[in-house]
TrEMBL record:
Residues 1-167 form the Flavoprotein domain. It comes from Arthrobacter gengyunqii. Catalyzes two sequential steps in the biosynthesis of coenzyme A. In the first step cysteine is conjugated to 4'-phosphopantothenate to form 4-phosphopantothenoylcysteine. In the second step the latter compound is decarboxylated to form 4'-phosphopantotheine. InterPro entries: CoaB-like_sf, CoaBC, DNA/pantothenate-metab_flavo_C, Flavin_trans-like, Flavoprotein. This is Coenzyme A biosynthesis bifunctional protein CoaBC. Keywords: Decarboxylase, Flavoprotein, FMN, Ligase, Lyase, Magnesium, Metal-binding, Multifunctional enzyme. Its EC number is 4.1.1.36, 6.3.2.5.
Amino acid sequence: MRIVLGVGGGIAAYKSASLLRLFTEAGHNVSVIPTEASTKFVGVATWEALSGNTVSGSVFDEVEKVNHVRLGHEADLIVVAPATADLLARAATGQANDLLTNTLLMARGPVLFAPAMHTEMWAHPATRANVDTLRSRGVLVMEPGVGRLTGTDSGAGRLPDPEDIFAAAMAAATPPASSVLRTDAEADRPGPLHGKTVTVTAGGTREPLDPVRFLGNRSSGKQGAALARAALDAGAHVRFIAAHMDIPAPEGVELTRVETALELREAVHAAAPGSDVLIMAAAVADFRPDTHSDTKIKKRDDGTDPVITLVRNPDILAEAVQRRDAATGSGAAGDAGDTSQPSLIVGFAAETGDGNADVLDYGRQKLARKGCDLLILNRVGTSLVFGQDSTEVTLLSPQDSADTVPPTFTGSKTDVARRIVARVAQELETVLPVR
């Protein structure tokens, strides 16, 4: 694959050398286009040595090759990392004052920006508007990482890890599952979810403390995205509600973006009616701060620490089940009544065991509390599930007896998603033979 790697003028430019190495080791041909400012941080010689290609950021070098047109036309993928506030602004407004911005205007394939800047710059309304503009045009803009920044400050604005940018780039360059998983003969046959609408939630919610800080979790959104792609491949229309994700949303979905648990709740309320299936794969914060500061919370000169009081977030999954059961007139999915509510509701549970019970026990307890039709149980922990490309899940059903050994699916998140969707289609046939 032919990749253009644009490098913006920020201190995080040094991390892009590792990203370039990931691309080249995967067998891709990479043309690096640094901005003039970025060469103050990493020199052209480094990019040429790592890429094996001549490197320039000027439209006046190798004019006979018409690089400002050719590179964008020939690229299968363009990745900009780091994408500074200045670069995002120039891209959003269609400027073409160097080789990189010219190339972005000529792009025919997917474009991915990995932002890196100071927290206040990322949160500034101008930057947010530029990001929204780019996303509205189909450009993929990752969320920056959170942590230590230049100097002593920390917050949102770190360049995502090179491995995460690489994964997002490969996902962006991969055609949707619906176009690559089925043969031409199979494409003429409807999938098992043909004509059905599936709503999938994904990613991790973020609960703001002040304009630059939030309570969050480690969810990457990879499993939810894999489920959406598997549902698309099965023929469904997919409504995809995305909280914070480390990867782009799948192509072909009806996308709604949210940040907080309350926003997710409202989006689920809106999307569930008319959906045949609701899959709640998002990692929803159990608690949120009871107040939100409009200004950054500062360290106090007297040395005292701020006290943060948490309040419970609503149980979105349980509420969805209750609304469905109230609408159908009973607690059984698929019974007569209001057919606008989902016939099948699938929950996810991320659990750890302790001295009182193991993961399976806690999963069964949660299934009973939530009342959903299936529960996908994850064992989570350090280097387990969150952010990983592989997973292991156990599928729990209310019909299981205490002696039932529930099925366990192990493998890549893509493979596991396909098996979950296959089970969803099977369950849907039993509760809803005809919509």
